[in-house]
Amino acid sequence: MAQSGSDRRRITGPEESRAPVFDDEDSVPWRIGEPRRGRGAKDIRPIFLKAGLISQANGSAYIETQRTKIACAVYGPRQSKSSAYSENGKLNVDVKFAPFSCPVRRAPLRDAEDRSVSVLMHQALVSAVRLELFPKAVIDIFVVVIECDGLDSCIASGTVACSTALANAGIEMLGLVMSCAAISVGDDIWLDPTGEEAENAVGSVILACMPALSTVTSVRQVGSMPPATAMQAMDICQERCTDIHQVVAQALLASTKNSE
Amino acid sequence: MASLLVSDTLRALTFQRLHPRTYLERLLAEDVRPDGRLPSEWRDISVNVGSISTADGSALVRIGDTTIVCGVKAEIAEPELDLPDQGFLVPNLDLTAMSSPKFKSGPPSEEAQVLSDRLNDALLAANVVPLESLCIQPGKAVWVLYVDATCINYDGNAFDATLVAMVAALKNTTLPKAIYIEERGRTTCTRKVREPLKLNCSPVAYTMGVFGENTILLDPMAFEEPLLDASLTIVLDEKRGVLFVSEIGYFNLAGEDLLTKCIQLAKQQHEFVANRLYGG
Amino acid sequence: MDTSTVLPGQPISVPRGPAPQLGEGLYSSKGQIRSSLVGVPVYDGPSLSVSRPRPLPHPPAPNSVVLGHVTRLSPQHASVAITVVDGVPLPPGEEFTGLIRAQDVRATEKDKVKIGDCFRGGDVVKGIVISLGDARSYYITTARNDLGVIFATSEAGATMEPVSWLEMRCPKTGKIEKRKCAKPEGL
Known about the structure:
The complex is a heterotrimer. By secondary structure, chain B is an alpha+beta fold.
């Protein structure tokens, strides 16, 4: 449902509109006990990653994992708009979902989800960036989610894209940050869940780490999971991050080769 | 040697940064533009459709480095009382902070608002989607097509790229079969049956900048845009008819007739690209 | 494939002997030297650094040579939109705010400086950053012969030539305007 209300800065349609209601199901729902459809429980979707597509930015990256598509750009170090002097630089992560990126249209007015996704990505990245080298300045990362298939996986993929874009921009980092999401379904742990799969989850984990330094930078766990399952999910995510690191390394090396 | 080259490039870039207008004047005296084009050269344009599964229709358009992605989302609403059989077309362009250092995050800038308004005017003037064709049940339910375009990379001439992206996305749009059920006062749809949207026409926009007295720069890039004295946009339909003209800035129509010349330039390019843009 | 390119976090092995001085793009943690950039490690004497494939425009730091346009004048200072830092231009649309305070305009007779007799809006100024300044701006000095206005347009719209370190002349009208001029390079 979209309410346009008093937005004077955009072309608005009718006062109120609703997403269509369907009388038939899209597909047969998955039931507990069935194996995961389309891939193995611990498999992630194939990653297409390219660095340096946005020519106007200092650095950028585009990531696609089947139906998840995210672009991000790094600007700065640039002048901070805040009025407080700070000895260290600041990292600003700003995530925006395109209105057509989700099953139901996202009205362009900034919603709370954009903010919380920004916070999670910021948390995953901030400890890796050498902010002490940029006193008083700010590094802006802008992320646009073009298509989202699974919010947790989208946060993880977005983090990977940001870290690639930071490296592409030549911002000094302690290491490359990788991230992976997992859900607990029945007795199983599924990695990199799609939106449909996530509906069956009882709990979820998003882990971000720097594989080169064997360091975790951020973990978010929600929902009910026995501690052992949560730990196991984190372990598998961390393992998979090492594989993703390879993909990122390839993309970065390819981009430096192109710029020569 | 290599470092000498680097310092030469930096010196040229420094000059460009400090004296953009003089820089452009000097280049144009040599008949060349900052990206190596001739003043009379358009950039390549490419269109890809249908890659976004969450949209009812989508398109990605590139003009040079400028990249616009557009998605159409169909929703259902009650029609206006005085227009009981007309649906809604709601086009908006978001110039994201990601796409250029010029843009800031937050609500749409003046520039984005002006562009969205002009796009709306052009789509309506061309009657791209007849609003009556969006009627489900007169006075009860109509389709609202939200045509949202997002700028991914901004290197000038967002209008042309966005108009093509919007038209291509609409052309790619299919709507589920919808039936208004009188007793329940609501509309239900079927996933199985989807019908393509019928477009009345497929317009293409051609923007030209005027620099100084009468240098015409076709398809201006981001560096050139703020230096232009005027800019002119011509929207043409399949039959090469002029649907819409918009002009910004001081434009000397006396003497040599620039407007006629620009329309002619647009028609020449139209001959060349129109057929391949929307895939027939 | 080029095997010498390293990635952020990648350990760098150094030959036995005295530890190298770490330049740009490297850091040391728990006795291990690692890269913090994508690039190729290069020795320059005892100093080891990882070079970027292209220069990153960096924010002004103390002693940075900066170029920019004068945007605003007040009796106490001139505001400058910095667009070039240490010879590297910032990307279009990006700038840093600099401030030339009256006491930092020239080295002599500091208390007699009238900002309006030294700069005008639109002048291009060359200066050196003295400090990171306050929250908003970087403090810049022009108190050196080679610093000050390097490009200015006269009231008649022509590019002026410096005639002394205090004055510039309009080639169109011959009128003299006051500026704190930088001594032209190569003189």
